[in-house]
Amino acid sequence: MSFDGVFMHHIIDELKQTLIEGRITKIYQLSDFSFLFTIRGKQKHQLLISPSKQNTRMHLTKATYQKPMQPPLFCMILRKHIEGARVDAITQQGNDRIAFFELSSKDELGDFVKKTLIFEAVGKDANLVLTDHNNIIIDCLNHTHPFEDKRTMIPGARYEPLTDTRTNPFDNTKAKDIFQTHVLDSPTSLMHAFEGIGPTLAKIWFNRQERSDFQSLNTIIHDQTFQYSKDKHTIFANTALSHIDGKTVTFDNANTMLDQLFINMEDKNKTEQLYKTLEKNIKQHIKKHTHKIEKLSQSLDKNKHAKDNRIKGDLLLANQHQIKRGSRHIEAFDYEQNKPVMIPLDPTLTVVENANRYFKAYKKQKKSIPHIKQQIIRSKNERTYFTMLEDQIKHADLSDLEEIKLELQQYGYLKQRQKPSKKLSKKAKHLTFTDEDGITILVGKNNTQNAEITHKIAAYNHVWFHVQGFAGSHVVAQTTLDSISETTIRTAAQLAAYYSKMRHSSSVPVDYTEVRHIKKIPGQKPCFVTFTHQKTIYIDPDETFIKTLKHQ
Fold it and tell me: What is the spatial distance between Cα 440 and Cα 457, in angstroms, rounded to a whole number?
């Protein structure tokens, strides 16, 4: 991360323009290390402060967060002391990552009292501290008791600010002297010389040609070209990320950039976490039904020989006069199979009782065969369903995954730890493309969207496409079969083949027919349909072609 002193300098400059003289109306503790302050001035603003070890930051946010029902103790203390307080000033300690919010409010007697909310964004020691007008700690998020560290951070102790002997780069006079008295020949040497300059900014300075003088550093720290990188490692700065190759996103101000960056990061983390949860659940069900099918198939093979028990019973009755009581087996010739048969006997039973035992086993096995076949069909359908989901989650975004999760919960495949929300965090939507002829083509990314575009959105005479014999998206071209052009047929078939398990194959068969010929299978999930009057086209999926299509 890159939340250094220089970036905090720019954040505070922007906060001064929006929050000064505003009043704190609401305080929420979103998680162990995230606090949301609603501040009303001329407009309503949300300030997010996160003294976490990994994602330390402070910025205005427009995101909607889920508020906890019960506030933790520290949040309640903040509400008691500064809810309703006015923001008088926002300052920074030198160029360090420490921000001071000077607040004023009325006490129980109606007198104005001063308090200070201090945000220390100092990595693993990050903290949020509330002090009174005498600089005595009212409370803080992370307590440090005497003899544990250099500073005591507990209620009642005097707040001792962190000290930094390095030079503030925004102090032009002292900064110029550093360049004259120090050898600055590496990013590390710059960080050791100047307060609040992090590794990202130091590398940017070092990789620019004019790095040898004060003016180059002054230009960089005052720059307001706020950028973050979209590569594997997320970094951001108040100036262009000229030291890296890769995609970057530029913003006009620091607060908007941080807000968007961390919304994207949180979505990415949620997506990865939800993907792993769904993948694990889906794979477990595939394994379960594969094992079940194997066991049922073995039982079916065994029960297909049920007539052997009937034959043994018949042979016992036919040869009962030859069987001595207490015999453990008998060999009798089976004229039906034209071979001798060895028949085990229970010596404690009579011949008739032994025969009835074989007849009973025969009837039980014969009766179970239809049930076993039905169970095999059901398990194969379930395995097909989960195989379909396994393919869908590989290409799903967060909203698509949430729809799939909700679907699994509704069918009882995934436990609901809490009451589901009435709406998703962001409504998932099917893909919409436009081909060269201007025809709109709809593509479902999961079972919910497939059912929606096929059974709700599509007209009865629209043309429906699906890859033949494999899991894949439902694709609907919003035109009739009589007027559909070859261009639209090939485009829709490309989409159906690409958004299926066969996307990496060649000569993929794609069936297409009118929506009126598609029927739901009674007793099956909505994603399973039958269709008639289809035609088939063979297509080679082309990702380059898909990317050239107009996409909404």
Answer: 12
